[in-house]
Amino acid sequence: MHDTLTSPRTRKAANVLGIVLLIAVVTPFAVYAVPEIVGADESFVVLTPSMTPAIAPGDVVVVADRDPAAVAEGDVITFARGTSDVPVTHRVIDVVDEGGTLSFETMGDANEGPDPGLVPAGSLIGVVTLTIPYIGYVIQFAGTRAGFVALVLLPFGLLAITEVWSIVRGRGGREVPTAAVDGPTDDSTAGDDAAAADGDSTEPTASERSAEPAAPPDASAPTDSGGISVDAVGGAAAVLAVFSPYTVYVAFELRTAAAIAIAVGSSTLLLGALAAWIPASGALDRGDSAADPTADEAASETRQRAVVSDGKESTAGVVWELPAFIEEAEDGIDDWSPTADDGEGD
Asked: How many CA atoms lie within 13 A of 313 on its CB side?
């Protein structure tokens, strides 16, 4: 009976659920970083509780441009106040038109009275179209050094370790074809005997053909399919290995959305290039060959196995001819049979 937790249907459902949860977690931050995907123009983190309970500290407001003439009473707007770099988000409680010049009277929902002074139409940044709760706390934490390390560097470090481990594990589980080192089969033995009987034949026997090492393929040679060569991938990885640390340093210093996006993109490309280049280049295979010479020794012994054919013994490419008197002695032994002269009849 199959375990329900490891059945294919359960694993597929778990994968789908994981993807859905990942999208649900990433989407709010993507909207904050790129508000254009929801038709807005800017986004801000709320810092004060003046608009509670509608908008609380730690929420993110997504703001869209709007013609000041289209702003109505009850709209929540974001505007610049004086020379302050921090915009304000309050509700419009009145629209004032003095001599064709629009201005807005605003007030926070949690405040007891309206804001001092009117907001000119020129100070309007936009109207709040969407509020995303709580993610402002994460965004503010990511703006600190500790938050950048915990939310950016640490996850990508773990991703790099996971990629390297998957490469090593996949390579270790890969089945490596090996040449048979046992003796030849009956068919190949019969073929060798036939070749040995024909002294003038110059064709190599099956054992000699199997003893010849195959030429290793050239990993750097381009394939006929028109794909990217291994050298090109290695060169790209080398360039990214120099560029990625710089982008990470810039993102760590600036901690802006653009700098973090560039650092994440370059680091991801570097990991992908390494994941493609390391197995294709055979770097790990060469390391194992140098660390474990037993396979090479076994292959060498197989190549050096002697092949006896036509009274000659070949070892490692050197041909040794048996002395003639040994051959004659062997022939005499084969022809000898007991007779009465040998004392059998006495």
From this structure: 7
Taking each helix axis from N to C end, the angle separating 154-173 and 257-281, rounded to the nearest 10 degrees, works out to 10
pLDDT per residue over 80-126, tens digit each? 988 888 999 999 999 999 888 999 999 999 999 999 999 999 999 99
Q: Are 106 and 119 in contact (CB under 8 A)?
A: yes
Q: Write the Ramachandran bin of 100: left for phi over 0, alpha for psi from -120 to 50, otherwise beta.
A: left
Rounded CA-CA distance 256/24 in Å is 23
Residues 6+ apart with CB under 8 A from 131: 54, 55, 59, 60, 61, 62
How many residues make up the chain in this entry? 346
Dist CA 96 CA 324 (whole Å): 125
CA distance 262 to 273: 16
Longest dimension (CA), the chain: 154
- Distance CA(259)–CA(242), nearest Å, equals 16
Whether the CB-CB separation of 275 and 237 falls below 8 Å is answered with: no
Q: Measuring CA to CA, which residue among 69, 66, 60 is closest to residue 79?
A: 66
Residue 50's nearest CA partner among 104, 13, 87 is: 87
**Residue 211: Cβ within 10 Å count:** 19
Residue 316 pLDDT = 44
217 vs 113: CA distance, rounded Å:
81
In 287-302, which positions are buried (b, 16+ CB within 10 angstroms) versus exposed (e)?
Answer: eeeeeeeeeeeeeeee
Q: List, for residues 293-305, the tens digit of each pLDDT value.
A: 555 555 555 555 5
65 to 40, 59, 108, 124: CA distances (angstroms): 7, 20, 21, 9
**pTM of the complete model:** 0.52
Is residue 244's pLDDT more than 90? Answer: no
Tell me the CA distances in angstroms from 85 to 76, 88, 135, 144, 254, one per residue in order.
Answer: 19, 10, 22, 19, 18
Q: Is 106 helix (H, G, I), strand (E, B) or coil?
A: strand
Q: Which helix (H) or strand (E) holds 105?
A: strand 101-107
- In this prediction, residue 295 carries a pLDDT of 53
